[in-house]
Amino acid sequence: xxxxRNIHKFYGNLEVLKGVDLEIEKAEIVSVVGPxxxxxxxxxxxxxxxxxPASGYDTRISIAGQDITGLGEKQMARFRNEQxxxxxxxxxxxxxxxxLENVCIPAFIRxxxxxxxxxQARELMxxxxxxxxxxxxxxQLSGGEQQRVAVARALINKPAVVxxxxxxxxxxxxxxxxxxxxxxxxRDTYGQTFVIVTHNEELAGMADRMLTMVDGQIET
Length: 220
Ligand code: ADP
Fold this sequence. Notes:
By secondary structure, this protein is α/β, with parallel strands linked by helices. It contains seven helices and ten strands. Strands 6-7-8-3-9-10 form a six-stranded mixed sheet. The protein is globular and about 50 Å long. Adenosine-5'-diphosphate binds near residues 16 and 38.
């Protein structure tokens, strides 16, 4: 599902990723751990097409059968909208919209019909235990609920891959546990592939596979 070879990334003179190779199967849940500054977030952003790898290397990144290294900006944006779901530590919900509207936004960007988008959003929110919260604004929701809205938003377009960066970093332990369970239920129900950067040892250990990054490389 994800196949990456020889990813390099520099910030100025600092080499942040030093030739990362990666193979992740469909419906696999992989956690990425390692010390702060090791390059975990940078790797996730490159896999999510939010940033580009250094040129001049024989780099290849393929996601869901698509070689993304050759895509133009428009194609990249479209690919990202359709195939990749993002979950961040700070959920970045839009405060003036309801939970339901927030979940629908990626579907609207994809030009999904409003009724159809809302039906899909309600189904997902049901699954995530949010059916009684569809009309609430983010400020009226608990931290755990807000994060589940963000999860629903990440999933509405049925992306092949979900990339999560410290998804439970901001939650109390009960809400974090609930969110972690959900990732596995979602994988079992929808067959999604998850790459999760986390400092949460429990979550990291639950994953099918744990990758450790140190100093811009994945330890073998
Ligand atoms: P991690 O997620 O493992 O903590 P990051 O990928 O966030 O690591 O960062 C790796 C290194 O790259 C760090 O030294 C960080 O300071 C640096 N870095 C990250 N983003 C930028 C940026 N936009 N500009 C300059 N340096 C950056």
